[in-house]
Specification:
- The complex is a heterodimer of chains A (205) and B (218).
- With 205 residues, chain A is an alpha/beta fold.
- Chain A has one domain: 3-Layer(aba) Sandwich (Rossmann fold).
- In chain A, the strands form two sheets. Chain A has a five-stranded parallel beta sheet with strand order 5-6-7-3-8, sandwiched between helices. Chain A has a three-stranded antiparallel beta sheet with strand order 2-1-4, covered by helices on one side.
- In chain A, 42% of the residues are buried.
- The mean pLDDT of chain A is 85.
- Chain B is an all-alpha fold and 218 residues long.
- Chain B has one domain.
- In chain B, helix 2 runs parallel beside helix 6 and helix 3 packs antiparallel against helix 8.
- Chain B is elongated.
- The relative contact order of chain B is 0.16.
- Classes of the chains: A alpha/beta (205), B mainly alpha (218).
- At the A-B interface, strand 5 and helix 2 of A face helix 1 and helix 5 of B.
Chain lengths: 205, 218
């Protein structure tokens, strides 16, 4: 299994932001994306996750293999932590949430409404969702936002065991997670000429 | 799919979920109309089927922007788009959850509210039957409208304007069935038309809703 991206161009709001990007991540490896704010890291990750079509180029990954986590975690405030996770476990057909609760030290919070959690605790719940999804490729957009030092270590552990079991992680982050991972700076792939909106909308219908 | 349905029902029933909003609105309409038109019971009987249908339709309209907007705001829609569930199934389940929490309570409460409007006794069965056949169409069409306006801040106004014309056929045949029933006439033609509309939109609109949703989450 691998994630391969070939001469990929992505657009935000119909305007090309990154172009000519190629990389390949093998099973058990992580790739960290770097680049200044607004360069298009989120757009790139959303394209790879299949949420938006790329302008050009190909994204090659096994079908239904990608779990995506972004700034908003899809947490329902009136449901408890356990109910939130159980919902995603059922959607992904995995069922068991105890290991996910354990990995992010959420057991003491399991019966609390998610709305009563702090920002960092919510983030941990959002990341625990990756574990219950049981998907091999993790596409993560700034996963460590609002996490404290301990939680970042927990997260790094979770990534480490995911990789050692043959998973793949693609992470946009600015902090050092202490992972043995390749780093790709996307700044050199900044699109030169903004593309007209019409062209971008061609694949619309 | 079951997980999504259970979660949506649970969210609707818990605090702040908006369950009962439509029902309360329906009650307000049926309580206030007799005050508005005066105490002539003959007049009330005549307009009752139309008022009841209109009240049910507006009550449905009131909660439409909750179907998808909340899931959009907290990122659930993005995550659902990555999930193994097809988008068509997700929007169908959301429409079903909306009907179960809004449409079905209206159908059940309608006979009670019909009392307030002095509906002739022959009209009760056709009223309930027409609402039962017609309200699913309101939820499915409403989900389509919600999908169209999902990325828009305060999209509720646009949603109402988009959905209102699509609701007109359902209202015409639904209210006609209830009116003919109340007058003791044959109701089969409007009921068949109503069922046709409902089954047609259930079969076709989820595909349209899923398509516009995919475009909107880009």
């Amino acid at each position: 299994m691998q994630l391969a991206v070939d001469t990929l161009s992505v657009a935000r709001g119909g305007i090309a932001v990154l172009e000519g990007l190629s990389f390949r991540v093998e099973a058990g490896k992580a790739l960290i994306l770097r680049g200044p704010n607004g360069i298009g890291k989120t757009t790139l990750l959303r394209s790879i996750a299949g949420l938006q079509p790329p302008l050009n180029g190909t994204i090659d990954a096994p079908e239904d293999s990608i779990a995506y986590a972004a700034h908003s975690d899809g947490i329902k405030h009136v449901l408890t932590v356990r109910e939130n996770l159980e919902f995603w476990a059922e959607v992904f057909g995995t069922g068991d949430i105890t290991s996910a609760l354990h990995a992010f030290a959420l057991e003491p919070l399991a019966s609390r409404p998610a709305g009563a959690l702090s920002a960092g605790q919510k983030r941990r719940l959002g990341l625990a969702r990756l574990l219950v999804s049981a998907r091999p490729i993790w596409v993560l957009d700034e996963p460590t936002v609002s996490l404290d030092v301990d939680a970042v270590a927990m997260f790094a552990d979770a990534i480490g065991s995911h990789l050692s079991s043959g998973g793949i992680a693609l992470i946009a982050t600015h902090i050092d997670l202490g992972l043995d991972a390749d780093i790709l700076d996307v700044a050199p792939f900044k699109a030169r000429a903004p593309l007209a909106r019409d062209d971008a909308m061609e694949g619309f219908l | 799919m079951k997980a999504l349905l259970v979660r949506d029902l649970r969210l609707a029933i818990r605090a702040g979920g908006g369950f009962g909003l439509g029902l309360a609105f329906f009650l307000i309409v049926t309580v206030l109309v007799p005050f508005g038109v005066g105490p002539q019971s003959a007049l009330l009987s005549t307009i009752a089927p139309g008022i009841l249908w209109l009240g049910a339709l507006l009550a449905c309209l009131l909660s439409l922007d909750r179907i998808l907007a909340l899931d959009w705001e907290d990122g659930t829609l993005d995550l659902l788009a990555c999930a193994p569930l097809p988008m068509e199934a997700a929007v169908s389940v959301k429409a079903l959850a909306h009907w179960l929490t809004t449409g079905l309570p209206l159908v059940i409460a309608a006979p009670l509210f019909a009392l307030l409007l002095n509906l002739p006794s022959a009209g009760y069965a056709p009223l309930v039957l027409s609402l039962l056949l017609g309200t699913p169409a309101l939820s499915v069409i409403g989900t389509f409208g919600a999908a169209l306006t999902v990325g828009i801040k305060r999209g509720g106004l646009l949603l109402s304007l988009l959905v209102l014309p699509l609701y007109v056929p359902t209202l015409i045949y639904g209210a006609e069935a209830a009116r003919r029933g109340a007058a003791g006439l044959d109701t089969s033609t409007p009921l068949i038309m109503l069922a046709g509309i409902t089954f047609g939109v259930i079969a076709l609109l989820p595909f349209a809703s899923a398509a516009v949703l995919r475009v909107n989450i880009r």
